[in-house]
Amino acid sequence: MSRCPRIAVLLTDLIAGGLQRQGLTQAKLLAARGFDVTVVTAYTRPEESGELLDEIARAGLTLVRVPQVQRVRLPGKLGAILNLLLVAWTFVRLRPRLVYSHGYIHLHRQVLVAHKRCMGWRLVHKELNPVSLFPESYRRLGRDLAARSDLVFAVCESVRRDLIEQVGYRADNVLVLHNALDAEYARPLPRPDGPPCIGTVGRLDPQKDLGTFLRAAAIARKERADLTFVIYGGGPLADELHALAEELGVSEAVRFVPGFPPSRAPEIYAGMDIFTLTSLDEGLPNTVMEAMACGVPVLATAVGGVPEMIEDGVSGMLVAPGDAEGIARAWLDLLGDDDRRRGMAEAGRSRILDLCSPDTVADELTTIFHGLLGVAAP
Questions:
Q1: Which pLDDT value is given to residue 237?
Q2: Would you kindly state where each structural domain of the chain is located, as residue ranges?
Q3: What is the pTM of this model?
Q4: Which CATH fold topology does 184-355 show?
């Protein structure tokens, strides 16, 4: 027997990024609360994650892919028109009561808004990225689509404030909904034997500012030649960062690992004495959340929603963006004080389990969605 009500969780694709992983986590939470959940992907990418596909199957979720005609050469605007029709056909056939979308999905949200009245579905969107990363076209379009949606979730108070003040979203239409921890990625494991290791996880792109991570590594190694470093992730700056490591003389101490398999998250974080985020801007980064939940002390730049996660000096350490000297000094101070590092790790785990509790997020989603749909809680 089909469960009710039906919710379509709309993701851009199944690349193993923070947005996709968080959307899938919330889809699983909704399914566990009795909703009939279908995961819909807007685009099919050649680099999509087999692990996310396996996770969808293990959770018993239905997966629907929106058909695409981008690779077919069609005259004029015929290709765009066909895409619009395919999006509409996908959702009309699916007939969800509510669509919960994530990310920059302009075309699909326009179609959903256009058919909202005649199909009777509710529309909720979640903004996970800071406004500084919005394409200019999305600022204009996103504001219009948000006004015509039932509700917008912002991943943290910082993103909510910027959506209202910088983009013009209506204050009464934007609520904060933190990311939810996935229990699979929140398990502390023993630290394996080996030299001190400082690590990070993230896409190798300008936003993550991993050049500052490497410069900090070079500074810290002048005092602690035994330090090692690991960077998990791929991206457009891979060659540039490899070259910088060579130039700074730290290439032998820095290990670059392409990709980040979610199933190995606890094991990967356990191999780090300190997790470090050097981003220039963020929403509420999954990597910081996961590292804290895995009992690893975190040093992060004070950007976006990060200060909402970390109380400086208590549940982690905060530094200014681009401050390689400050990052190196903080690393050395923490590595020289085992008791402080352990206390910070414990406080960080306690803080994040409270802030990003899956039960709390599931309760909030369930209450809000039941209210929008006019159904009584079971």
A1: 97
A2: 6-180+357-373, 184-355
A3: 0.90
A4: Rossmann fold (3.40.50)
